[in-house]
Write a structure and sequence with these properties.
With about 250 residues, this protein is α/β, with parallel strands linked by helices. The protein is globular, with a radius of gyration of 18 Å. The structure holds adenosine-5'-diphosphate (ADP) and magnesium ion (MG). The site of adenosine-5'-diphosphate (ADP) has 11 residues, from strand 2 and helix 1. Magnesium ion binds next to helix 1.
């Protein structure tokens, strides 16, 4: 059975000033799956995610979401089109509660709830997202009262509250202990089971290869491997990229 691709990158390049960090990156994400994006530090993973989410605009190539080209669309329009994300460096409002942070996600432009414009409806949606990640009982606590791992879960809840179709996660397991990683893995599977597609960047190969069906590998801003997870991790170029980097 073949799946339609929810997201496709065609020949994507990115440069900061004259400094090229992505060259001809190509991959396609099948709808409903969890896929991984890995590579040594500085290989261009976060830049790729930023080019997908609209924080950066690709210098060349195309980004296609659900058949629609979004290469030059601003970030908020991509959110509206169903793209959700978290950040490698947590970006929560630290003077606000978990609930207040997640409500901001629920207020996504184009979300039908905004027309209903009832605060209660937004909060209900935010509570449901917090409940999904297991933190609803602590909704009214300040973000700073949560462990690092739980702050990462609040970020995921904020992204989920916008009702995305594709969720982009930049190193969600960074700083988590092994118990937290196991529950993150379970959470990813529950998110995928609810019909979302997930792109996960992470350095934990056990987590990525267990959770993801397919993995794309970057090195020096180029794709060096792509395919079924276990086969990709055994690919000689991938092995030497990691050995060379460590
Ligand atoms: P990764 O997430 O795989 O560790 P990044 O995408 O963050 O890699 O970085 C890829 C390359 O781009 C690195 O060489 C990094 O130094 C460079 N880079 C990232 N962000 C910027 C920026 N805002 N300006 C200039 N160079 C950047
Ligand atoms: Mg990064």
């Amino acid at each position: 059975m073949t799946h339609p691709h929810i997201l496709t990158l065609e020949d994507v390049g990115h440069a900061f000033g004259g400094f090229t960090v992505l060259t001809s990156v190509e991959f396609a994400i099948p709808a409903g799956e969890i896929v991984g994006l890995i590579g040594p530090n500085g290989s261009g993973k976060t830049t790729t995610l930023n080019v997908l989410s609209g924080l950066y605009t690709a210098t060349s190539g195309k980004v296609i979401l659900d058949g629609r080209e979004i290469t030059k669309l601003p970030a908020h329009k991509r959110t509206e089109a169903g793209l959700g994300r978290t950040f490698q460096n947590i970006r929560l409002f630290r003077t606000m509660t978990a609930l207040e942070n997640v409500v901001i996600g629920a207020e996504r432009p184009g979300n039908r709830l905004i027309e209903e414009s009832s605060r209660a409806a937004l909060e209900e949606r935010a509570i449901a997202a917090l409940d999904f990640v297991g933190l609803a009982s602590r909704a009214n606590e300040l973000v700073t009262a949560f462990s690092y791992g739980h702050q990462r879960l609040i970020e995921i809840a904020r992204a989920l509250a916008a009702n995305p179709t594709l969720l982009l996660l930049d190193e969600p397991a960074a700083g988590l202990n092994s118990t937290e990683k196991q529950s993150l893995h379970n959470l990813l599977e529950r998110i995928a089971a609810s019909g979302l597609t997930i792109l996960i960047i992470d350095h934990d190969m056990t987590l990525v290869s267990n959770a993801a069906s397919h993995i794309t590998v970057l090195n020096f801003g180029r794709r060096i491997a792509d395919g079924e997870s276990m086969a990709v991790l055994r690919h000689p170029d991938v092995v030497s990229a990691y050995l060379g980097a460590e």
